[in-house]
Amino acid sequence: MSPNLLEVQGLKTYFPIKTGLLQRESGSVKAVDDLSFFVKKGETFGLVGESGCGKSTTGRSLLRLIEPTNGKVMFDGQDITSMSEKELRRIRKDMQIVFQDPFASLNPRHTVRKILEEPFIVHGIGSKEDRLDRVLKLMEHVGLNPSQLNRYPHQFSGGQRQRIVIARALALNPKLIVADEPVSALDVSIQSQILNLLKQLQRQFQLTFIFIAHDLSVVKHFCDRVAVMYLGRIVELAEKRELYSNPKHPYTQALLSAVPVPDPFVKSERIILEGDVPNPAKAPQGCAFHTRCPSASERCRTERPGLLQLSEQHQVACHLYS
Ligand SMILES: Nc1ncnc2c1ncn2[C@@H]1O[C@H](COP(=O)(O)OP(=O)(O)OP(=O)(O)O)[C@@H](O)[C@H]1O
């Protein structure tokens, strides 16, 4: 049996750009541009990069909430990309997503009971009493008071609302949860509580996580392996400790230099990236990062680097190492 829950090969998701009165297609945004990686059963795989680099589109494409343009996604040995809608509905209960903004993902007119009961109703699971029982258990698992069963989302704090979203994601006993910036909208003091809850649930229910974040400080304690994305591509992928202690790609080095160091005796030099992220509709030839890279050579301008295996736990897409 494969140790991997997810295997992704050559995933591409392009969005057409339509212009003019007739909305003619005039190109495409390469939001996800040829990603290949795997996620092991029970691990937390981090996807990190600046806003707009394609993290959310990747997460949604993996679950086919957005249709990928190309590539193959194998989930638990099954090819999701070739599944019919019906087959997909069956397998979707094994793959859930938690979004950044808990308020936007909850129906304001539904009580917690109704919100948490819905997945069971949709999948025809249990009698009314049995469903209530399941809802109460879910509330308990995520640290919500069962007496709040009949409250509405606006009667909860941001952190509690995210607990409701997590409970709903857990309802159908999934194997994989894509957590798309699940703590970014929360107070810093609440962030670690939610991260701890996710970790505890992971152990309790043998969950596999894909954890999306825009900076490397949040994933530091949470992920096992981390992929750094830039303009729709993975530029570096490594086991967490290896990535933090031995970053190879100039972009990862710049991202890491922006992570605050809590020790006043440790001096860290911040690498300031010049220029803006190139427009994904007109991504440059060669390495997408070359316009901002302090070490770019002529080759970086013309030739796109592939992901190079530096060691068993470390891959980098950069001409400095090839
Ligand atoms: N439905 C869409 N139609 C057209 N372009 C899109 C669509 N969704 C995303 N994009 C574009 O695809 C690129 C990647 O967006 P995506 O939201 O995946 O990035 P992200 O890294 O998750 O950013 P953020 O952290 O801000 O959410 C961006 O340039 C975005 O504008």
TrEMBL record:
It comes from the Bacteria. Residues 17-256 form the ABC transporter domain. Keywords: ATP-binding, Nucleotide-binding, Transport. GO terms for molecular function: ATP binding. The keyword ATP-binding applies. Coiled coil: none annotated. Gene3D superfamilies: P-loop containing nucleotide triphosphate hydrolases (3.40.50.300). Belongs to the ABC transporter superfamily. This is Dipeptide ABC transporter ATP-binding protein.
